[in-house]
Amino acid sequence: MSEYLGSNLKLLCSHYRSIAEVCRKLAINRAQFNKYLSGQSRPTPYNLKRICDFFGVEPYELGLPGEQFAALLGVRHGQVGKAPRDPLLELLQPLSELGGDLSRYCGYYFEYAHCMSVPGRILLSLVQLREERGRFLFERQERQERQAPSRASDEQNDEWVRCRYLGAAFYLQDRLFLMDYESLTGNEMSQTILIPSFKSRITRLNGLKTGVSSGDRRTPACTRVVWEYLGPQINRVNAYRQVMLYAPDDPRIDDDIRQRLAGAQIRHGLFEIE
After folding, report:
1. In angstroms, rounded to a whole number, what is the distance separating the alpha carbons of residues 257 and 122?
2. What distance in Å separates the CA atoms of residue 140 and residue 128, rounded to the nearest whole number?
3. 259, exposed or middle or buried, with CB in 10 Å at 0-12, 13-18, 19+?
4. Is 146:160 a contact under the CB 8 Å cutoff?
5. Domain range spanning residue 228?
């Protein structure tokens, strides 16, 4: 049974909104259920009966080869001839199944990073991380002045370049992985890796971010990044007013943020943070 158990369980779980939902309904620990899905462990006879009763299958059927098991389900549930699933969704499905719970990280953040399009400036963005139907998604709002204002009063007269990034977040073995795309133009993607907080209260998270500059050269680049937790609910209008480019010595950027962004280390050709 162990050879096909994991893949057959994944097929059964695909009819539900998330693996987490299945685990809740079965009252089986998520980490233990992930071992069943990956083939690292087999259910005890007791858990196997619970799983089979829940999905309406027989124990021996879970040991059938994948194609035979899928055909059996199709006949049983009248799904013969159903259109194939999106291969991209199938590719990412294991990440959702194996990823940990990010609920404690949901909320709003300011993101500080060196601007890839305007070198020498710090870009402050507004991020919202949320849970939706068992998945963890996020949105990042950016805006940059086309021309840096010479006085604060000039700010209203400048044209702004606005960007809206949409993405997904995954918690994999003590790291937060976030990938997104720019939704207004559809011409770029970025990836961020954050080091989680092991304290009871989340304040600031360090990480690295890769992407491209928005100019004609579209230069691939990597920068240190800091996420500052704002809370589960905020005044979005007031927060968005702060979304813009800043000079590194701007007093609105505190010393701790500057120090976190400046701590670059290149060892053996690798750009690392600790």
Report:
1. 10
2. 7
3. exposed
4. yes
5. 103-272
pTM of the model: 0.67
**Number of domains forming the structure of the chain:** 2
- State how far the Cα of 94 lies from the Cα of 14, in Å rounded to an integer: 11
60 within 8 A of 48, measured Cβ to Cβ: no
Are both 63 and 110 inside the same structural domain? no
pLDDT tens-digit profile, the chain (274 residues): 568 888 889 988 888 888 888 898 898 999 999 999 988 889 998 999 889 888 888 888 888 888 888 888 775 555 444 445 678 888 888 888 888 899 999 999 999 999 998 889 999 999 999 998 888 999 999 998 775 544 444 444 457 889 999 999 999 999 999 999 999 988 899 999 999 988 889 999 999 999 998 777 888 999 999 999 999 999 999 999 999 999 999 999 999 999 999 876 788 888 887 7
State the distance between the two ends of the chain, measured CA to CA, in whole angstroms: 43
Pair (75, 107) in one structural domain:
no
DSSP string, 117-181: SSTT-EEEEEEEEEEETTEEEEEEEEEEESS--SSGGGGGGS-EEEEEEEEEEEE-SS-EEEEEE
- The 8-class DSSP code of residue 59 comes to G
**Do the beta carbons of residue 82 and residue 70 sit within 8 Å?**
no
- In three-state secondary structure terms, 221 is strand
Q: Is there a contact between 49 and 59 (Cβ–Cβ < 8 Å)?
A: yes
Residues 240 and 148 in one domain: yes
